[in-house]
Design brief:
About 40% of the residues lie in helices and about 25% in strands. By secondary structure, the protein is an alpha/beta fold. Bound molecules: S-adenosylmethionine (SAM). S-adenosylmethionine (SAM) binds near residues 23 and 160. It catalyses: a 5'-end (5'-triphosphoguanosine)-ribonucleoside in mRNA + S-adenosyl-L-methionine = a 5'-end (N(7)-methyl 5'-triphosphoguanosine)-ribonucleoside in mRNA + S-adenosyl-L-homocysteine.
């Protein structure tokens, strides 16, 4: 399918012939074509909801890290995309960020967004320092690419990304290694990923090999049996995402994380998170702001079907 010629000329060359190349090519192309206005409006509220959720998660984890005494907070954004979370980190007053992604066009855009943010900031409003890395984080060891080889992170954030690594045990492990090996003891690994139970439940209930609505579609090649790794499905979200993804069997993910000295502290479905935060009146004002008619400035991330997703947080043991 992916011939030699394409390998030679593609900006994503050296990425190999597996699904990671398809994913990188897909996300690289997104930047070139931009988001069609039509798609933007159809998934507008979902994108804002996802951004609200990530903002709250990031805000809460920063509070915890600071509460534990960390001052100059350092963050690894694993699968940063175009930098949709940069503003969240800025609002959170972090000291340093490393942004890594397999799609080099996205990384370039992330860097540009950061430079722009820096240019516009007032002199007394010191913006965090940053490093940008293009790498297949399911294959390459990120710590070898750090400008500061001694750098340790307070937080690794992996938003709507980890499921791409579940193509094989080796890849899932490498992604996890990158997420956890440079975390300080007491540091956190936070993220969002599709809920495999929900996906399997829905495909089993479907009388075909797919389910969805006029906006999104999930299709499997077969059903009835779901391997622990490499259980591929195709996710498409109108005009924005159209890629192969893999089920993440959460108990296995949790078990694998333990090998990196990580303990699961929280796992919730988006709906549970929403109920807990908004219905208890917490974070309601931010939600209202993000649901306002204008897109939230500089927010651009996580285009998933929100009712199929869950978020998690692992802490590194002391
Ligand atoms: N985290 C960003 C956000 O929330 O806006 C982007 C999420 S986007 C749905 C998924 C991102 O994962 C894409 O930017 C894609 O290039 C990246 N990605 C997928 N596989 C990856 C890998 N093996 N290594 C690094 N990045 C990867």
């Amino acid at each position: 399918e992916e011939g030699e010629d394409e390998e030679e000329t593609s900006p994503t060359k050296k990425l190999g012939t597996d699904h990671s190349k398809k994913v990188a090519t897909h996300y690289n192309a997104l930047q070139e074509v931009g988001l069609a206005a039509r798609s933007q409006s159809r998934i507008f509220y979902m994108r804002n909801f996802n951004n609200w959720l990530k903002s709250v998660l990031i805000g809460e984890i920063l509070e915890q890290v600071r509460g534990a005494g960390s001052r100059n907070v350092s963050v690894l954004d694993l699968g940063c995309g175009k930098g949709g979370d940069l503003l969240k980190w800025r609002r959170g007053g972090i000291g340093h960020i490393v942004c890594a992604d397999i799609a080099e066009v996205s990384v370039d855009q992330c860097r540009t967004r950061y430079e722009e943010m820096k240019r516009k900031s007032y002199s007394n409003d010191k913006i965090f320092s940053a490093q940008f890395i293009t790498a297949d984080c399911a294959k390459e060891v990120l710590s070898e690419k750090l400008e500061d080889p001694k750098l340790m992170f307070d937080i690794c954030s992996c938003q709507f990304v980890y499921h791409y690594s579940f193509e094989s045990e080796q890849k899932a492990d490498m992604m996890l290694r990158n997420a956890c090996e440079r975390l300080k003891p007491g540091g956190f690994f936070i993220g969002t990923t599709p809920d495999a139970y929900e996906l399997v439940k829905r495909i089993e209930a479907s009388d075909s090999l797919s389910f969805g609505n006029e906006v999104f579609n999930v299709s499997f090649q077969s059903k009835g049996s779901y391997p622990l790794f490499g259980c591929q499905y195709h996710f498409s979200l109108e005009g924005v995402v159209d890629v192969p993804e893999f089920l993440v069997y959460f108990p296995l993910f949790e078990h694998m994380a333990k090998q990196y000295n990580m303990r699961l502290v929280l796992k919730q479905r988006f709906s549970e998170f929403f109920e807990e935060k908004v219905k208890k009146d917490q974070h309601r004002s931010l939600m209202m702001k993000m649901m306002a008619l204008e897109p939230f400035p500089c927010e651009d991330g996580g285009q998933q079907a929100s009712d199929n997703t869950e978020e998690y947080c692992h802490a590194k043991e002391h």
